[in-house]
Structure formats: C-alpha cells, structure tokens
Design brief:
The complex is a heterotrimer. Chain A is α+β, with helices and mostly antiparallel strands. Chain A has two domains: 159 residues, Uridine Diphospho-n-acetylenolpyruvylglucosamine Reductase, domain 3; 95 residues, Enolase-like, domain 1 (2-Layer Sandwich). Chain A is built from ten helices and twelve strands. Chain B folds into three domains: 200 residues, Aldehyde oxidase/xanthine dehydrogenase, a/b hammerhead (Aldehyde Oxidoreductase, domain 3, Alpha-Beta Complex), CATH 3.90.1170.50; 322 residues, Aldehyde oxidase/xanthine dehydrogenase, molybdopterin binding domain (Aldehyde Oxidoreductase, domain 4), CATH 3.30.365.10; 146 residues, 2-Layer Sandwich (Aldehyde Oxidoreductase, domain 4). Chain B contains 19 helices and 28 strands. In chain B, a hairpin with a 2-residue loop joins strand 22 and strand 23. In chain B, helix 9 packs parallel to helix 18, helix 14 runs parallel beside helix 15 and helix 17 packs across helix 18. Chain B starts with 15 loop residues before the first helix and ends with a helix. Chain C is elongated and about 55 Å long. In chain C, helix 2 crosses helix 5. The chains are: A alpha+beta, B alpha+beta, C alpha+beta. Chains in contact: A-B, A-C, B-C. The interface between B and C is large, with 61 and 61 residues.
Chain lengths: 263, 786, 161
C-alpha cells in the first residue's frame, strides 16, 4: 500500500470536511478497497473511515413503510435486522462474500464501488431505492452509471439507502466459483405499481434493469411469463467463468427462479 | 479391535497442539535482527527483450540498501534442472539457462527483472516503481502445437526450437503399433486437456537468509519440502558455496503439494543478497506473487487411442502428449511428463502393446513442475477416460470392461518399464462396489430425476508408482540425484529417543506416525520418541518429502536404524543378563532371556550404554545408529474410486453427491492420518475436475491471477468422502510393507468426477461425448446445448 | 505514526502504527502474535480471521487503526491459561481437522464465531459458513466433522476416522 493518512470522524459533517482535501477517499468496511490498495491500484492521500459515525448505522422502518439503512451498516447487520422488514434484502445481504466479510463490508461502500458483479446494486435498482447522501437524494435509476461508475460527486458520502418494500421480492444469485461474487444475480421485486427486475454480474455496463422481463411480468406475474424471453448476449460479460451466451442464458434462468421464489 | 498405540493405531497428532494454539513456527514468523526486505520487480509482459534497466533513481530512494539486476548474477550459476531426459533419438534434452534475475529477455509474466533490498517492504516497493525498464515486446509463445512448428518464435534464442525433448516409451516400432490398431475390432480415440493448475498451499513461499562475516556461514530459512536438496543445489550449482558453510532450515511449512520441492531463484537470491548487503534479507511472497512465481502443475494436451479385440480385451494403447514446461526448466519438471507419466500408462491393465509419445514444450508461461501426483494424474486421466468412452461406444458395463482387463498375476512386467510387485485390483474393486453401494445407484438416479436433476456415476481405477526408486535405476533414466533417504536414531541415556529423519513433515503427520513405528518396534510409549526434521544442521541427510515417499523410503531407513539400535542394545542386555545375545528377546520395552524370567528394562540398557561401567568390552559406548535406505523398486498403491454427481440441466451446475475411495496402500501405520491424506487428495482432485483453471490470454497474461479468478475448492463444493483402505496387499520389498498414500486421492479422483458428469449427460437418451476440465457450469451448459 | 490501543486476548496493548498498517501486521509484527496467518491478498483465504468485538473479521483486510479501542481475540487466546485446548481446538485434534496447520487458526476462529451464532449447525450450515476459509490439505471432511463434534453432535456415523 502507498502511505496515507487515516481519519475516523464521528459525524457526517466532520467526514465531509475531512474528505474535502485532494485525493481523500471514504473508507466503508474496506473489503474491496483494502485489497485494491494492497495491489497499489489506488493512491489516496487520506482515508476517511465512516465506521465511527453512529448516525450512519442501523436499519429502521420509516413512517411510509420503507426500510432505511445507514450507509455504514454492515451486511451482517442488514441480514439480521432487515429479516423482518424486508426479507429479500436481508437474504441478499446474507449472501455477500463470507461471514467475516459481511461483518465489515457496508452497504454504502458496496454501492459506491458499483462492482459489476456485486449483489447490493441489484437490490437497490430492483427495489427502486433512494440513495441518500450528505448533499442530496438520488433515485436508483439515476445512480448507477456503468461498471464502477456512479452519480456520486467527489467527497460525497452515502449516508443511507431507503428501500420501498415490495409485496414480494427475491434475489437469485449464481456464484462465480472463485470470487463468489455473482456470475449472474437477478433481483425481482413486485410492487403494486409494477414489477422491477435488476440484473447484476452479467453486463459489461454493470447492473441494469431488464425491461422486457418487467413488461412481461407486469402483464402476468408468473415464471411462464418469461418463456422465450432472451436477453441479447452482445453486451454480456464473457470471461473465464462463462461465455456471453451462458450469462445471457443465466439471466433468464435466475430471473425465472426469482419469480418462482416470489410466488 | 483398533489398536490404541504403535503401528496401526490412529494416534492423535501431537503437532496439532502447537498449530491449534498459534504456536507454530512458519518461515514468515521468523524475523532476524536487522533484517532488510526484498521486493522483486517482475515482468508484466510474457515475452520481451530487455534493452536497458536503469536503477539509478531507485538506488537513491529512502531506505534502499541495494538494487540488483541480472548483471549482478553473471558470475554465478543459474537454476538447475535435476533430471536429464534423453529424447527418442538418443539426444539429451535442450536445457536453456535459467538465471536468478532475467538476463537479456523476460520469458513469462512474473519473471523477475530486478530486486530491491530496503529497510522496509513498502520502501522496496516504492523503489521498484522507480526502476526504469526498457523492454521490447516479442510475440509470446503460448500454443504448444504452434510452438512445435518449424519457424515458430523461440522462447530461448539459443535453442534450435521450442521442443525440450521428443520422448518415447514402450513399443518403439511404429509399424507394429499401427498393425495392432489396424487389426483391432474397435478403436476408441480421445483428445484430452489436463488443465494447468496452481498448487496454492495456503502458506505462500518465504525465504529469510542471514550471513555471518565472522564464520563465513549462511543460514537460509525457507518454505521447503526438502531442505537438504535445496542446500545441495544452491551450493553446488547456483552460488558455488561450500555445503558445510550453509545451513538450510525448513521449519513448519504450510503445505507443499510439490510446489515447495523445487529450488527457487528467490531462495538463492536471498542467500546471495545477505552477504552482498551484509544484512539478513527476508522475502515473503504475496498470494498474487505466488500465482506468477510458484511452479504450476499439469498442462498436458493429449490424444489417446485404445485398441480392443472382438472380446473387448485391450490389445493396444497409444498416446501422444504435448507437455507444457513453461518458460524455464524447474527442478524436476523434465521428469514429470516422462518417467512419472509414461511409465504409468499401463494402469491396472494387461495391455500388451503400449506406445507413449511426449513432446515437452517451452512456452512463455510460468514454469510447470510436479504437483500432487505429478505425471501420474495425467496418465490416469487419459487412460480412465478412454476406457469409459470405449465402454460407452461398445455398450458394455465400464466396471466389467475394467475387470476383464485387470492384471491379476504378480509380479507383472508392464510394457512401459515397471514391475508391479503386488496388488489385488478385483479385490479393491469389490470393496468399492460395496462401500459406494453401486447397486443402489439406479434408485438414487431415479430420485434425482424426480427433482429435475440428472445423476451420473463415474468409476475408475488408478495405480501410482511411489517411493521413487532405486537410485541406480533412476540414475540410468537421467536423474541427477539419488532417491534414497536417511535416518539417525539417537537413544538418550534415559531411554527417550530422537529420530533425525530426512523426510520433511508439512501436514503429513510424521511427528506422530514415525514415532509410532519406532515405539512399536521397541515396545515403549510413543511419547518417548520424537522426530527431528527440516534442518540440515540437525539431521544427517535427506531427500525430503514428495511422491508419497516418506514412510516407504525414509520410514524404511528409520526402521533399519532402529534395528541396528536394537541389535546393539541386545548385546548390552545380554551382557547385563549374562546370557547369550541370541537368546535375548525384546518385547514391551523389556529385554528378556528366552525361556527364563530374567529381564532388564529398556531404560536400564540405555542408561548402561551411556554409563558403561558394567559393559561388554567389544561394544562401543553410546546408542545411536544411522541408516540410509535405497528402495529396491517403486511401490504401487492402487485403488478404485466412485463419484456420483447431480447436474442441474438448466444451469449446468454440477454437485458432488457422493465420493467413495477404495485404496490399497499395503500396510498402514496411522489409519486416521491415511484417511486425512486421501480426503485432501480427493479435495484437490475435485478442484481440478470442477473448479481450478490456470488460464492465460492470447498475450500470455495470467487470467486467473488471484483467488478472485482461480477457483479453489471450498467446504461447500465437496461432500463427506467415503474412504476404505481395507484392501491391503503389502509392499513386498520394504520392511514396513507400506506403499504411500499422499497422492492417491489427487490421482484417482479427476476421472471419476468427469466420468460421472458424462454419465449424467448421457442419461435419458442424451449424448455428450466429451467435456474438458474444469467441468464448469458454463462448459456443461455448452456441452448440453451443442 | 499514530498510537493505537486495543485489548488483545484480554490484555491492553498499544503501539505506533501507520495509517496503512493492517490489523494482521499489528498482531504479527508489533505484538509477535504470529498465530494469525496471512495466506492471500484478496480477503478470501481466511487464515487471518480474528474476532473484533466478538465478530469474526479478516484481520488482513482491516486497518489496525480501525480496531482502536476494540476487544480483539486471536488464536493465541483460545486455550485455557494452563494450555488446555478449548472444545473446538480439542475437536480439531480429536478428528484430525488439520494437517499443515496454516489455515487452522482462521478455521478455529471462524468455527467459534459460527457456534456462538448457531450452537448446533447442520453439515450444510457449517460448509456454507466456511465459505471464507480455504484449506488445501484436508478436503474439509475432518474440519466439518470436528465442528459438528465440537457442537455436541454425534459424528460416529460419518465415514472414516
């Protein structure tokens, strides 16, 4: 790792101030960032840990029924504490990485990184969640901007994520056998207003909504509604672990299984 | 009744206590006062010509002690190869130089270009980034068949081509082999890839070297399976140091699996640099570095043809293999595709005519050498896959086809240079059929199908040649080393025993199993015996641990040394008991005179040996004996394995539902440890079959360069295994009748898994002829969907 | 350099570290607690698992300064003062749940975290929980068996010693 300063503020305001310097970077659980630093692939001058900010931690149900999760809340906490209020989200959090990673990794860190194979972006986009930062609120549909890209500005911190709770939802993850990230993950959420389907792991452009599947499921919410529906393999990721065609196929299979699990 | 101590007892491992309490002493746990740290600047391109290396900026960086490049090593030797293979025309293999740091060219991603020694590791890394390297990129040589063509780009400019050797074993008359195939009633042909693997012991490699100006002595702590071999190679062939001035210590080592046999450039570098810098020097590999610097395994591309007569008897076998050696010859790399592979092509079968052809290729990839099984898994995989395919083509039961062709008479001379001393392949297969409940498979398949899954059963046999082997024979075959081992049994005055053994324990449990043997021979408590290993200053000599040899070879030396001790102790006891030596019996730690009630205890005899007041004049005081043991033959563990898989037809996901191993290891000293060895081997074999794939892209970049892309088997990838080793035909030529068990699981399991997947994919009227390892979901899906 | 203080295995410790110093380095290099091992650089092998405030974490993937004020437990603190192995450690020895020993500290620490959360896990739950702990020696058979035994389950029917 290159040398860097370390700060651990206890309020959002202090964190924002600390991030004001050049090349300062926020540190969530560090489960992706620290390996990146070890490889010397990033050279922040300062890391600002958000793990000491109490107001960014925890799971709560808002007055409108949505579930709000603090940006510095670990996956393990979400898996435990959202199990009653938003079971599909809790189940997804419980499948990220491994137990020790889940005890450190945070929702804010995961979403800000927007790894194309990460699980959380599928839940955020599939739920139509709102990303709350120190400066503004961003709709999930406007947040993810392709592989590792987001709408966040320099120094902007995800303070919480607000999930509307669907009538039914399920995340089906097919494991990349080495990293155990998603080779393909499908998040299906059924709201009174319509169905949202978000796919992670599959696309060169990162997490995306599968609008054809949403339209078909809006008409008829059952697995058969997806019959014959195929995604174009062109933009899929093709690598050591699966061809473009295979990923396109898995998108259909995992989406269908998610619908089955919602039934 | 299972025994509770001695030979045959599942004694709990005494070494576990230190490992379970964090008190182990691994190489990275060793820090020497004043040590500096090494960082190697490694090539990020696969093939290139070095025009210039400018280290001037790096040398001025904070904390830098010294910067080294290939120029600093022009006066010393390169990394040696320990086995000279002679090609089929009688010419020696092509043996290119392998410098410690690259000279002239870089030949694989990870090839070390320069090394920085600095006060801290981060300072060394900072300085390495300031080294300016001007490299002209060259076309990488990657595809083995293309590399063998005339006019191909050369990995080594001074060689005539990229072929290290073109080797043959078995029937040399091509016309005779052609005739066998022409007259066969059926010929089955199969093209196979044995996927390249990374051994990945959980402990990455580490070297710590120190030099004493006062005594001109060096100490190297290193993660090695064989410290004496490292000392010999490094002193005699690389650095030109006097062997008696160099101590090599391999303390607790966190797994080896072959890849810690070899002498590596980093070890020689640290030893050299410790003197050059007049500072202790430490290097610890990161896992990322291990992926591009540890010798890798397997990587064969083969075509195998099996000829059968009208009665389904095997009448001929021919294989053609391209074996990837990578960019340089690693220590034992040349022996793996030849004498450890070709010699096993008879398998468990009485095929009369066999021809094995191997072209070993240089490519711009990390060097390839022995990995658990080393050559024998590649042979077994080819043979057991082609037999399964033949059975499918002929519509016969694959087990019956194997049984029909089993060797049943021993000793048996194979057409590929080995003499199997003993075995009972039908008996072992019987054990497998019972243990795996093969009769119940149809019902289990029906259950799986009811859930929408395909189920398959794969069965195969294996044989391996272990305890390699008489030194005079391996010498004729090109080995540049003897393959004996040594042990010293030092009895202390109070009767406790230290046994200095040449084998090295890095997971095998020698610290528990070896004392079981000595204690059993004398009839004393196991706790009175301790082994000492892994330090050239403490043990007489040793060739180390690999090839499932420790108990068969080093254990035999230990038995011989213990016998010498007992013989001498009997002389002393006879003197004390005023009896004839011939009448002295040793049982339960008591020497007694046959037919009388006169006896003297072990401890009294040992005390007398060191306090020789009342002592036979013709006997020297003391009680310590050394023995070297050179085996008379290989040992031949063999077995039969069964795997059952379920395949999800929608995703291609394969899950291992059951895995059963029936092995014949001859006699067994500690059944618990033997089971553990088989479990571990199976785990690695399943890893090869389903998950692991060391892949390079078209530029020679390593695609699977970390655990993020190299899929290691995890706990939820494997089931509980069934292990049966009650089929026992003891080895006929070593004193314990043991054969070795360390590699069996890794040799026997890949074909079982692949055969099972193909059985599933051919169920219910489907037809899939072949699938390559690793059998990933993506590949299964592609195979099922044309 | 910044001073960091924490409690390790019940003992208050402190030391001067850089921002980039990992918790694993602090334990190994500053405190000489070398039982915590480092087997990879991508947070996957789990040889470095320790407990921080009672939770399993990968100490090579956490900055030492993040553990300021924390209660840290390592493999060195698992046995009793007199050296008696704890239930999990003893089960690992009884059932041959380790070979080379390198992954073992992480395995034991993960197993302890699992049994705290789930005192009687099924085979499948154990295998799933060990997702972040790699072992290259045992094929996992005896590790899973040892954890089942440590949780008081009868393992005699599981094949092989």
């Amino acid at each position: 790792m290159y040398s860097f300063e370390f700060e651990k503020p206890s309020t959002i305001a202090d964190a924002v101030a600390a991030l004001g310097g050049e090349d300062a970077q926020a540190l969530g659980g560090g489960q992706t960032l620290i390996p990146t630093l070890k490889q010397r692939l990033a050279a922040p001058t300062k890391l600002v840990s958000v793990s000491g900010i109490a107001e960014m931690k925890g799971v709560c149900v808002e007055d409108d029924g949505s579930v709000a999760i603090g940006g510095a809340t670990t996956h393990a906490t979400v898996a435990r504490e959202a199990a009653g209020s938003y079971p599909a989200l809790a189940a997804l959090a419980g499948q990220i990485g491994d137990p020790a990673v889940r005890n450190r990794g945070t929702i804010g860190g995961s979403i800000a990184n927007n790894d194309p194979a990460a699980c959380y972006p599928a839940a955020v986009l599939g739920s139509g969640a709102t990303i709350v930062t120190n400066a503004r609120q961003i709709a999930a549909d406007d947040f993810f901007e392709g592989m590792f890209g987001t709408a966040l500005d320099e120094g902007e911190i995800i303070t919480s994520v607000r999930f509307p709770v669907p009538q039914a939802a399920s995340y089906q993850k097919f494991l990349q056998p080495a990293s155990r990230f998603a080779l393909v993950g499908a998040y299906v959420a059924r709201f009174a207003s319509g169905v949202r389907v978000a796919i992670t792991g599959a696309s060169e452009d990162g997490v995306f909504r599968w609008s054809e599947a949403e339209a078909a499921l809006d008409k008829e919410f059952r697995p058969d509604a997806l019959m014959g529906l195929k995604i174009n393999p062109m933009n899929m990721i093709g690598d050591l672990h699966g061809s473009k065609d295979y990923r396109a196929h898995l998108v259909s299979v995992m989406t269908k299984r998610a619908v089955e699990a919602c039934m | 009744m299972p025994k509770d101590s001695g030979i045959g007892a599942s004694s709990k491992r005494r070494e576990d206590v230190r490992f379970l309490t964090g008190a182990g002493n691994y190489t990275d746990d060793i820090n020497v006062h004043g040590q500096a740290y090494v960082h190697f600047l490694r090539s990020d391109i696969a093939h290139g010509r070095i025009n210039n290396i400018d280290t001037s900026a790096a040398e001025g960086m904070p904390g830098v002690v010294k910067v080294f490049t290939g120029k600093d090593f022009e006066g010393v030797g390169g990394m040696p190869c320990g086995w000279e293979v002679t090609d089929k025309h009688g010419a020696p293999m092509q043996e290119p130089p392998h410098p410690i740091l690259a000279q002239g060219k870089v030949r694989h991603v990870g090839d070390p270009i320069a090394a920085v020694v600095a006060d801290s590791l981060e300072q060394a890394r900072d300085a390495a980034e300031a080294i300016e390297v001007d490299i002209e990129e060259l076309t990488p040589v990657l595809d083995m068949k293309a590399a063998a063509q005339d006019g191909a780009t050369l990995v080594h400019d001074d060689l005539k081509n990229n072929i290290c050797y073109d080797w043959q074993l078995g029937e040399a008359d091509d016309a005779k082999v052609d005739e066998v195939f022409a007259n066969a009633a059926h010929v089955t042909t199969l093209d196979l890839i044995n996927n390249r693997l990374v051994a990945n012991p959980m402990e990455p490699r580490v070297a710590v070297a120190e030099y004493s100006r006062g005594t001109d002595e060096y100490t190297l702590y290193t993660t090695s399976q064989n410290p004496h071999v490292i000392r010999l190679l490094m002193c005699a062939f690389v650095l030109g140091l006097p062997e008696h001035k160099v101590r090599v210590v391999a303390p607790d080592v966190g797994g080896g699996f072959g890849t810690k046999i070899f002498h590596y450039a980093e070890e020689a570098f640290c030893t050299f640099a410790a003197k050059a810098c007049n500072r202790p020097v430490k290097w610890t590999a990161s896992r990322s570095e291990a992926f591009m610097s540890d010798a890798q395994g397997r990587d064969h591309v083969s075509t195998i043809e099996l000829a059968l007569d009208a009665d389904n008897n095997f009448v001929g076998l021919r294989t053609n293999t391209y074996a990837n050696l990578g960019a340089y010859l690693s220590t034992f790399s040349s022996s793996v595709p030849t004498w450890l592979h070709g010699t096993l092509m008879a398998g468990n079968y009485k095929t009369p005519v066999i021809q094995v052809n191997v072209k070993a290729m240089f490519t711009n990839t990390v060097p390839v050498d022995a990995y658990r099984g080393a050559g024998r898994p590649e042979a077994t995989f080819q043979l057991e896959r082609v037999i399964d395919k033949a059975a499918r083509e002929l519509g016969v039961d694959p087990i019956a086809l194997r049984r029909q062709n089993f060797i049943t008479q021993f000793p048996y001379d194979t057409p590929v240079a080995l003499t199997y001393d003993t075995g009972d392949y039908n008996g072992t297969m019987d054990k497998l059929e019972a243990a795996a409940d093969l009769a119940g498979f149809a019902a289990r398949r029906a259950e799986s199908e009811a859930k929408g899954k395909l189920r398959g059963l794969g069965v195969n046999c294996y044989i391996e040649a272990c305890g390699i082997a008489p030194s005079n024979i391996v010498g004729m075959l090109g080995a540049r080393a003897g393959l004996y081992d040594a042990a010293t049994v030092r009895v202390n005055a109070t009767g406790s025993i230290s046994v200095m053994v040449g084998a090295h324990s890095h997971g095998q449990g020698h610290e528990t199993a070896f004392p079981q043997v000595v204690a059993d021979m004398i009839g004393i408590d196991e706790s009175m015996v301790e082994i000492v290993h892994g330090d050239t200053s403490k043990i007489p000599f040793g060739m180390g641990t690999y090839g499932s040899r420790s108990l068969a070879v080093c254990g035999s030396a230990m038995v011989k040394a213990t016998e010498k001790v007992i013989d001498k102790a009997k002389k002393i006891a006879a003197h004390l008991l005023e009896a004839s030596e011939a009448d002295i019996e040793l049982k339960d730690g008591q020497f007694s005179v046959a037919g009388t009630d006169k006896s003297v205890a072990w401890g009294d005899v040992t005390l007398t040996a060191y306090v020789p007041h009342n002592f036979p004049l013709e006997v020297e005081p003391g009680l310590e004996e050394t023995a070297f043991y050179d085996p008379a033959n290989f040992t031949f563990p063999a077995g039969a394995y069964a795997c059952e898989v379920e395949v999800d037809p929608e995703t291609g996901q394969v899950s291992i539902e059951a895995f059963t191993a029936a092995d014949d290891f001859g006699n067994i000293v500690n059944p618990m440890i033997v089971d553990g060895q088989v479990h571990g081997g199976i785990g690695q074999g399943i890893g090869q079959a389903l998950l692991e794939n060391c892949a390079y892209d078209e530029n020679g970049q390593l695609l699977s360069a970390s655990f993020m892309d190299y899929a290691m088997p995890r706990a939820d990838d494997v089931p509980f295994y069934g292990v049966d080793h009650s089929s026992q035909t003891p080895c006929t030529h070593n004193p314990l009748g043991v054969k070795g068990c360390g590699e069996a699981g890794a040799i026997g399991s890949p074909p079982a898994v692949v055969n099972a997947v193909l059985d599933a994919l051919n169920s219910g009227g489907r037809a899939v002829d072949h699938i390559d390892m690793p059998v990933s979901p993506s590949r299964v899906w592609a195979a099922m969907n044309g | 350099m910044t001073q960091v203080s924490m409690t390790v295995n019940g003992k208050a410790v402190s030391g001067d570290v850089e921002g980039r110093t990992l918790l694993s380095s602090f334990l190994r290099d500053h405190l000489a607690l070398t039982g915590t091992h480092v087997g990879c650089d991508t947070a996957q092998c789990g040889a470095c698992v320790v407990h921080v405030n009672g939770e399993a974490v990968k100490s090579c993937n956490m900055l030492a300064l993040e553990a300021e004020g924390a209660e840290v437990g390592t493999i060195e603190g698992q046995a009793a003062e007199d050296g008696t192995l704890n239930t999990i450690q003893q089960a690992f020895q009884d059932h041959h749940g380790l070979q080379c020993g390198f992954c073992t500290p992480g395995m034991v620490m993960s197993a302890a975290a699992l049994l705290k959360e789930n005192p009687r896990p099924s085979e499948a739950e154990i295998r799933k929980y060990l997702e972040g702990n790699l072992c290259r020696c045992t094929g996992y058979h005896n590790i899973v068996k040892a954890i089942m035994a440590a949780s008081g389950q009868d393992v005699t029917s599981i094949a092989a010693e």
